[in-house]
Every structure is written in C-alpha cells, then in structure tokens.
Please model this.
Amino acid sequence: MAARQLRRLIALWALYARMDVLWVARGLRVSVAWYVGDLLVSLSAVTWSFLLAERFDGIGAWTKPQVVFMLGLALMVRGAIEFGFGLNNAFPSRRIGRGQLDHLLLMPQPLWMTIASDGFCPASGSGQLLAGSAVIAWAIHALALPISASWLALLLLHVASAAAIMLSFSYLWASLAFVAPRAAEEVNSQTMRLLEQLKPFPLDGVGSTLTLGLLTVVPAGFLAWLPSRVLLGLDSSLGAWLYTPLAAIAFIAIATAVFSRGMKRYARTGSTRYLAHGFRR
Model:
C-alpha cells in the first residue's frame, strides 16, 4: 500500500513538473521576467537585515558574512516551500475560505497526496531556492567554512525542517477558516508576512522571554537563526542539531491535530462562504 502510494506521488510530481516547465518555458522573455521578478521580491524581504549588517559590519555578535549566511538560509527555506507547495498550498486559508477545498476532496486520492503534489513547481518555484543557494555559497567562501557531506546533509535537514515548521504554522492558523471562512480567508497572508519579517534577524541578546516566544508562539527563530547557529558552529552543545527537526515534528503533530478537527467540522457544515449567493454547502 505504502509503495503504491509512493509510486503514485512520484508520478504526480513528474506530471506537475512537466506542466510547470512548459509554463515557464513558453518563451525566453517570460522566463527571464519571471526569474528576475521572483529574485527581486525574495531579496526585498531580507534586504533590510543585510543593510544593517553592512552599515554596522554585523548585527550584535554576528559578523557580516554570518548574517549573509542566515539570510541565504532564510531564502532557501521559503524557496523550498515555493518549490514544493506553490499555488496556494502554503496558504490553505484561501482555499478553505473560498470553498475551494471541495476541489481537492473530489480528487480520487487522499487529501494529503493532493496537497503534497498539487503545488509542485520545480521550475517557477525555484527562484528563491537558487538565490538562497548562491547567497549561502558566497557566505561559505567568505567564512572559509569547512564543507563535508555530513554538513551538506545537515543543511538539507534544517531547510526541510524549517520549511515544515513554516507550513505547519500556516495550516494551524488556516484552521480558523473552518469556523469563520470570510474573516479568516486571508489569515495566512498575515501569518506568512509575520514569519517573513522576523526570520532574517539574529535573536541573540533579545532576552529569554522574547526568544522563547519567537520559538513557540511565532516560530520565526527556527526558520533561519537557530539552524544558522548550528551550521556555523556557534552552538556546539550536544544535540543542538536536533532542536529544529524535533520542533518540526512537534509543529506537524499539532497542526495535523487541529486541522483534522477542522476537517471534521467541514464534513458536517461544508463551505458557507457563498451560501447567500445560492452556492451549495
């Protein structure tokens, strides 16, 4: 059963990847405009932190190359989400609030498989991932970091874990749309913006209470700061490399439990967003 589902998922990834490549490859002008625009948008989200580091030769105890490394990691995390969960899959409140969840439920496959494949955009969603990789490569050169296969594996583990935390936070808040579809339709726009604004900032020296809040209530610290401390060797404590992956497991479990409860409510009530206009529940 599991092997058949995995083969099905891989086949869906191949199908969506082909459609995505065809969409981007419509012409050279379209491709260049898309990637340049995506690059400018992604860099604008972290430029302020880089400018602070440039002006003061670092932020707090972090040197300028270390800050650049963290910014590159932040871009890679968001890029991983755009790569695998594009087309509003990272903004589920929109689909729930607009009554579009029915489109996914009608698919002849489990909901999790549709969510895991429907937004697979390896061409149009690779801009931030490539930009982040280039920024990290520059920082590695500037810091003269020793790179090994295990370090690269640790980098991929933290990027995947941070992306999972970001997605879990999004799905957790999206569950509000099951109760209030009109009011919470765009709640994920705000949750994503909140994380985007906080993730490229070093949390050293901000105080234990604020740090705890930015690792739990708003888990921005897990998206770039804490993984960067591990990857740069700033945190050499035993088991430090496990903090972000374990947090990802915890956030996934919480988001799954809350979203599942919302789905049970949705099974009873359906979408009431456009009921007044004659649409079915």
